[in-house]
Design brief:
This protein is of the alpha/beta class. Helices cover 43% and strands 13% of the residues.
Length: 706
């Protein structure tokens, strides 16, 4: 604030900071011109100096008037005052100011200045009043009768409940017919939107809104405006399926996580941010995780790594469609890596740290060329998103294994923001112990609280500090709660319901869209990343499934047999039992070999740990990549198996029959024989005939179509 200096002299208060009016302004101008002319005459000042100064003043006031959008007559009057004053001063310097002619003409000029100033002042005031009236008429025209009724009702309500009088500028009805938004101007005197926001509950009760509906206030276009979203229909009560639009997304354009009460989609921008999702049991947190993974799967510049120490349940639905196959093309898992054990989680976090550090060194030239200190994320250099289910609990756990993981998670959060590696953590509750870590609060600016009506352990003030009017009972339904991002203030929201069959559809629809890890990052990740889908690290996914052993005799195919051949079929990991599928897929042992070959072809992004690095080779057209067969085979057993296959004639034989025949002499098992048979099919030495349990292998010399 600027203090006004007031001087009292002989009982008269003079305010030297006050502006000039028409009379004082004219008096100041004329006395100033007379003083300049008198002193200039005594000092022999060149007359043209006064004219130059007056011209400059006229130009300056003209420019200022144009910038302030003043009327033309106002600008002209100010410019004329400068020119007249400087013109008189120039004439007085030439002829002398101490004459009655000079004094009289100066007095006339002063009176003219005062009259002109008074006239243009009244005109500008009238213009301002007319502009205000025109704006009010425009608002009145835009507000239909129902809108005017809403505006009047809420002006009275806000006055009654909050004690302030607002002026409603607009009322926007939502296209979904579930509510409206009021754009209001706050009164003078320092009132802020927060004064209305903290009375959310009282306003909702005064308006008799249904349960689950709110009157939420948020900042307007400037600090003197407020937006009030009034929900009249509880859209969060119903279950809304995940949208069937699986179009490509990007980390730069935002990932959809849910919708507001006005049906507006909430986008999250996670290039530099981490996220925290809180939800007690039964609140829909697992479904929310699947919605998050669905958005990540649709992005073409992101790779998703999932850590779930609860048997990997968060990531399994995104891997299983790749096991099942069902198409003629390779189907890649919806996530790039899944860790269900402490050991695998450590490998993943260590790989992430190595990738981040290597990116910092290797991409300096790229960042310098792009003139940025953030790694330019793209399909060629994808962002890595670590989704850690109940990760917040890991960070505060005292268990030795979890403490080791917590240290690595915090390192990833703290060090790798610029290098495109971010985290999404979930937690069971918004408590002080979970949110006590400063790193979580500082980095996880995107926050979600799924309440499901649960009040225990859901302290919303800790999760959303500074937010007003948030009450758990406003979101009693599963899959609903509160969400806030740096771009969207915290408010009620709901998330879509996503079911396993839709997850399968998304995996198939986005399989070709997933990027590959860039070569520099893949080299830094090393064998831990390259062999993440090896059988000995993923057998846990299917080793719980047991089926009847396959026989070479024809038996009825099981109902709903496995899908047809083709695709990344991870079901080959079922190595304890050996069954054939009902639709012609080779038995599971052969699929195991096929899976390893396809993994090498599709996912081999790091050198073989047992060999020198070599350039990545594409699979041979018409066959599978046999680089996965890393152990030497028993040549004698192979030759004996090939002899039995040839001796079987046109009828052919199966893997089980050959394995039984060679078991005593060579100790071979059915899995080994299956691998050989599939290899011979790929090489053209054998032909597979039949489907399901009727599958037979025939030597190429007995193939009638050869």
């Amino acid at each position: 604030m600027t203090a006004t200096k007031t001087v009292t002299h002989n009982g008269l208060a003079l305010d030297w900071a006050a502006g000039h009016g028409p009379i004082t302004g004219a008096l100041s101008a004329t006395t100033g011109a007379y003083a300049v002319a008198t002193v200039g005459t005594l000092a022999h000042m060149p007359p043209t100096w006064a004219l130059a100064i007056g011209t400059a003043g006229a130009i300056g006031h003209t420019a200022t008037g144009l910038r302030q959008k003043l009327a033309a007559r106002t600008i002209s009057a100010r410019a004329a005052s400068w020119l007249l004053g400087s013109g008189w001063t120039t004439w007085a310097l030439t002829t002398g100011p101490l004459t009655w002619t000079a004094l009289g003409s100066l007095a006339v000029i002063g009176v003219g200045m005062g009259a002109a100033a008074r006239s243009v002042g009244l005109y500008e005031e009238a213009r301002e009043l007319e502009a205000i009236a025109a704006a009010e008429r425009q608002v009145a025209r835009e507000l239909s009768a129902p809108r005017r009724a809403i505006a009047a009702e809420w002006v009275d309500r806000i006055q009654r409940v909050c004690g302030i009088t607002v002026r409603v500028l607009a009322v926007e009805m939502w296209p979904t017919n579930t509510g409206f938004t009021i754009d209001a101007e706050l009164p003078q005197g320092g009132a802020t939107y927060d004064r209305i926001a903290r009375e959310n509950g009282r306003l909702s009760a005064d308006a008799r809104l249904p349960h689950g509906c709110t009157a939420a206030a948020s900042p307007g276009i400037d600090q003197g405006r407020v937006l009030i979203d009034v929900t009249t229909v509880n859209v969060l009560a119903g279950e809304v399926p995940y949208p069937s639009d699986y179009s490509p997304l990007s980390i730069h354009t935002g990932i959809p996580w849910g919708y507001r009460t006005n049906a507006e989609v909430i986008l999250t921008y996670l290039r530099e941010q981490c996220a925290l999702v809180v939800g007690p049991t039964g609140s829909g947190k697992t479904n929310m995780v699947h919605v998050i993974l669905a958005g990540f799967a649709r992005a073409d510049d992101m790779l998703t790594w999932v850590i779930d120490l609860n048997a990997g349940s968060a990531g399994l639905p995104w891997v299983r469609p790749a096991m099942e196959g069902g198409t003629e093309r390779v189907v890649r898992p919806g996530i790039d890596w899944l860790a269900a054990t402490y050991e695998e989680a450590e490998l993943m976090l260590d790989a992430a740290l190595r990738i981040g550090l290597q990116r910092k060194r290797a991409y300096q030239d790229l960042m310098a060329k792009a003139n940025t200190d953030l790694l330019p994320v793209s399909r060629e250099i994808p962002q890595i998103m670590l989704v850690i289910d109940e990760g917040a609990e890991i960070l505060v756990s005292n268990e030795p294994e979890k403490r080791k993981l917590a240290k690595k998670i915090l390192e990833v959060i703290r060090m790798l923001r610029a290098m495109g590696i971010r985290t999404v953590l979930t937690a069971l509750g918004a408590t002080g112990s979970v949110l006590g870590n400063l790193m979580i609060r500082r980095e996880a600016k995107t926050r979600v609280a799924l309440t499901g009506g649960e009040t225990e352990g859901m302290d919303l003030s800790k999760l959303f500090p500074g937010a007003r009017g948030l009450r758990v009972e406003q979101a009693p339904h599963k899959g609903t709660g509160f969400m806030g991002t740096p771009e969207s203030p915290v408010a009620l929201f709901g998330t879509w319901r996503i079911l396993p069959n839709q997850i399968r559809d998304i995996v198939h629809a986005t399989s070709d869209r997933h990027p590959y890890l860039d070569a520099i990052s893949a080299k830094a990740a090393g064998p831990d990343y390259a062999r993440r889908w090896d059988y000995n690290r993923t057998a846990w996914i299917t080793d719980h499934q047991h089926t009847e052993p396959e026989t070479d005799e024809a038996t009825p195919a099981p109902p709903g047999g496995a899908p047809a051949e083709g695709g990344l079929n991870l079901s080959a990991h079922r190595n304890t039992q050996h069954t054939a599928t009902a639709s012609g897929v080779p038995d599971e042992d052969a699929l195991a070999e096929q899976f390893r070959r396809q993994i090498d072809a599709e996912f081999a992004t790091a050198p073989d740990p047992e060999a020198e690095p070599t350039p990545r080779l594409k699979p041979v057209p018409g066959g599978l990549n046999l680089s996965a067969l890393r152990g030497e085979q028993d040549n004698a057993a192979r030759q004996a198996a090939l002899t039995l296959l040839k001796a079987a004639g046109p009828e052919g034989t199966g893997a089980s029959a050959i394995a039984r025949a060679l078991a005593d002499a060579h100790g071979t098992n059915r899995q080994t024989i299956s691998g050989w048979l599939q290899e011979w099919v790929d090489e053209g030495l054998a032909v597979r005939i039949g489907t399901g349990t009727k599958t037979r292998y025939v030597h190429h010399t007995h193939d009638p179509d050869a």
